[in-house]
Amino acid sequence: MIWDLHNHINGLPGSTPDEHMENLLRFADRMGIERICVFMGYPFINEPTPEQLRTQNDQVLQALAHWSHRAFGFVYLSPQHLEFSLKEFDRCVRNGPMVGVKLWVAKRASAPELDPIVEAAASMNAVIFQHTWHKTTGNLRGESEPADVATLAGRHPGVPIICGHSGGEWETGIRAIRHLPDVYADVAGGDPTNGFVEMAVRELGAHRVLYGSDSPGRSYASQLAKVMGADISEADRKLILGENLKRMMMPILRRKGIRV
Amino acid sequence: MIDVNVSLGPWPFRRFPGDTPSDLVARLRRRGVTQAWAGSFEGVFHRDTSAANARLAKACETAGSGFLLPFGSVNPAAPGWREDLRRCHETHHMPGIRLHPNYHGYKLSDAAFADLLREARDRKLIVQVALNMEDERSHHPLMRIPALDPAPLPEAVAAASGVKLVVLNRMRAPAGEALEGLARAGVHFDLAMIEGAGCAGSLMSIITSRRLLFGSHAPFQYFEAAVLKLKESAITGKDEENILSGNARRLLGAE
Asked: Could you report the predicted ipTM of this complex, rounded to two decimals?
């Protein structure tokens, strides 16, 4: 069973969200991926306005309308627009079909504006996904480091939070989150550098490591290879490829009556 | 299956699973590889590339059965590079060489690069040019390597007409007309660092399967990535045969 944590509907041919999804799933099908999580519409905007957030979430809702048997949607929120984001959470998650929250690069995760968003998500058992990177070339102004996620998680013990990309430069990222048992490592979106998943399993335990691809910007192939090619046990591989994500999502899926 | 892009020796900033020659060979064999073209990380970083190349040749010989074909490093920005080239060819009997322009500090527009291409062509050596080794966002902070501009490559290839050139670790560039032109000029590209859903099929649609080579960039990268890229793009039949071994055999002159 393969569930892919990290997908977008931006980057493949198509004039509608539905067509983007169809093209994306064509590749996912070839790789044996059963379910994908989708967030953000198009185009990517670093610091979206409330109107742009709503438009992008509507695109994902449109995609889900036809592909809910294959895809889960996460609502795209911005702590730059906290009041709007909490309303958008209600529209898309509390009262809508989405099951998670995506936070990108508008504001660092250590900022206090994140707290009400985390509390809202936790009240619904919604999955919380925070993009992170630790770039040698320098981060964007509001782009989080894994250490920012660690700070946020320290204020919310017991709430699962996903450290997107594990910081990209994963050797630093994994170290930044390893002392926090509720922080999970997403392996998506970087080069398939040998040893990534082995270190994550060694330092975090396989139960805290999640497969994701960041497709279509990244190849399903290169990202699956991190797990398929890792020197880990078959039991750990299954956890990472889908069992961990399923376990994390089951509370909200049950709450919403979504059968898997 | 012929993997045209593996490397021996330790990477300075981390150990990789399978980064000793015996372990790498065992892993490649288990995955169906019958021959691998090996450069060395020492050849990227050491100033004494002559010694690095000698060690590479010895390691490949020790691996046995002609499984590892050594591709020595030559730095045309360094004094005495012609002797390195001669030794690669005449002393170590290598089928080709591997270049790392951005790690060695020269541009593809430099006259020395053009000279090297011509001399390698005259020796009938394959020339591999590694455009990248890793995402620049992940470089060690004490060793940031400037990105290599591939724009001068078409002109350099034209000036060395007939050179057997293989571009390794292409990410996004060259692209468009430059990419098409290079393929028409006989330049080959490997799979190792291309990205995006269906990336192998997308690249093949531009350069054709006759110009695409199976390269993994192991042990730096997980070997499985290159294999799975073929599956993701549903590449089968003659195209798959070209990529997995046919093109590499033709470059070696084995067909």
From this structure: 0.96
